[in-house]
Amino acid sequence: MADGLDVDRLTTVIEDFNTIFIRLPSVRRFNFSTLSVLHTLSRKGPLRLTDLLATEQLKQPALTSLVAKLVQDGLLRRRPDPSDGRAMLLSLTRSGRQIVRSRHANRVAKLTRLVDQLTPEERAVLAGSVHVLTRLTEIAAEEQP
User: Fold this and answer.
1) Angle at which helices 94-115 and 7-21 cross, to 10°
2) Residues 18-65: pLDDT tens digits?
3) How far apart are CA 30 and CA 145, in angstroms?
4) Which helix (H) or strand (E) segment is 48 a member of?
5) Which pTM was predicted?
């Protein structure tokens, strides 16, 4: 149903790009799970642990342990859920937000250096792809339970 689009090749190209793009030098090293939790909370706002569990590829005991460590490290905070006092909401602290912002700024700088090496025609194609990639992300989000 891809109508002339080589989805296998596209998948490989995206995987290769991600391999290069997600690895940024950092003064403070974090594992993938930590960065994923920080990124998710940055994008989706305060969440319950059970809601966060739906987005992360971790079992509940591992996520509970990771969240406890991130709270202890001052990157996350817990507060009672106003709609259910028995539940807790997790959100980023100032330090957690700073990590997300810093990584984003590093990626913008890295991608800018790469894009600057493209021809004007290649940059135009890439600019047109932003809408398509956004739409693919929206479709994927709609498919999630």
Assistant:
1) 120
2) 887 776 665 467 888 999 999 999 999 899 999 999 889 899 999 999
3) 28
4) strand 47-48
5) 0.81
- C-alpha 15/C-alpha 32 separation (Å) is 16
Q: How far is the C-alpha of 56 from the C-alpha of 36, rounded, in Å?
A: 7
Contact 33, 58 (CB under 8 A): yes
Helix (H), strand (E) at residue 47:
strand 47-48
Closest by CA position to 76, among listed 30, 115, 13, 117: 30
d(CA 29, CA 26): 6
Q: pLDDT tens for residues 105-124?
A: 988 998 999 999 999 999 99
User: What are the residue ranges of helices labelled H in 73-115?
Assistant: 94-115
